[in-house]
Amino acid sequence: MTTKREDVLNWDEYFMGLAHLSALRSKDPNTAVGAAIVDENHRVVSVGYNGFPKGCSDDEFPWGREGDTLSTKYAYVVHAELNAILNSKWPVTGCTIYVSLFPCNECAKAIIQSGIRRIVYESDKYNGVDTNIASKRMLRAAGVELCRLENTIHLEVHKTKNPEC
Questions:
Q1: Tell me: the pLDDT tens digits for 29-69?
Q2: What is the set of active-site residues?
Q3: C-alpha–C-alpha distance, residues 62 and 69, integer Å
Q4: Do 33 and 50 form a contact (C-beta atoms < 8 A)?
Q5: DSSP letter at 27?
């Protein structure tokens, strides 16, 4: 009798992989972020990635990080977390959001208001920056659980040029 395989991903690793897969849709040349929202039954409720709002061409709006506000991406890009919340066709109350980069203070507000109860994140590269401190302060005050995953699997995608697909 053959025994089952033991070296499988746990749920957090699996859904973080989905967040990474979603990030591959981002056209941001500097920081591609993905998010996945999952309910208590391990069902995917929504996904998102950082990019411009619907109807705003990514060829006409800036991707830069330097310069005046209107010349940078910061005034225009919708973050992965907010995109996932807005893309959901179902309530996200009580759900977990998996995100490759710790949420900024603006996304923290949306996460709290939407009723998401747990954040699983990977990178915390802005740790100690004022907006990161504010984000963590609000999330903890609202009782949102924060869980950092380390050593997760990063996906490598090899695209094929198949005009039939």
A1: 999 999 999 999 999 999 999 999 999 999 999 999 999 99
A2: 81
A3: 10
A4: yes
A5: -
Tokens of 100: 């490759």
Tokens at 35, concatenated? 């998010």
| Locus of tokens 């490759």 | 100
Sequence letter at residue 108: A
The runs of H, that is alpha helices, within 4-143 are 11-23, 80-87, 105-114, 130-141
Closest CA to 15 of 55, 54, 43: 43
Q: Output the pTM of the full model.
A: 0.89
Smallest CA-to-CA distance from 9 within 151, 156, 121 is with: 151
Give the Cα separation of 61 and 72 in Å (integer). 8
pLDDT tens profile 84-141: 999 999 999 999 999 999 999 999 999 999 999 999 999 999 999 999 999 999 999 9
pLDDT of residue 7: 87
Among 80, 151, 86, 89, CA closest to 119: 80
Q: Smallest Cα–Cα separation from 19: which of 37, 39, 41, 45? A: 37
CA atoms within 13 A on the CB side of 35: 30
